[in-house]
What we know:
mainly alpha
Amino acid sequence: MRKTAWFVVLGLIAFLYAVSSIPGLRVLPVLRQLFYVGAGFDAFYAWLAQWIATKIPLNFSELAYMDQVMQDFLAYVRENPVVIEFFLRKLAHVFVFFIITLALFFLLYQYIHNAALALIFSFIGGFVLAALDEFRQSFVPDRVASTVDVFVDMIGVSLAVILIIFSLIITSSGRQRYFQKQSAKKD
């Protein structure tokens, strides 16, 4: 189990290093390629949407204003694709550091059997990786180091910590209730 945890953490750090090393990385060209791949699934998606719509007995006419809002948003985005690029980049920061923090916690918990301590070290590790990654990007052509990106990365780290705390609370209380029921059955 420890080898797997090490493999996952090191693999994620290698992925982060590789993506951060791409000079002038842009998200939209990658998304265009994915769009062309996904376009082949359009017929299936259309059929699935129609099938789901027949199974849901709702009146969607009351949501017509949402269609207008979406059309306005899409028109704005077509004129300003930089907006989508910005949001997708920041979302990627949050997602990657969320996953890295989860992996760090599982790795550290293999060695530190105190969940709170492993959680603190995971948080610190996420921050250190975010700061080092941004510093390293200052040496990559067409990339800049940004303290804003470190804060965005910390959103992902913080969300992972919240999820872990929530999971620990749920599983520990569930375990306590289970063992209380088992001991009550024995009496």
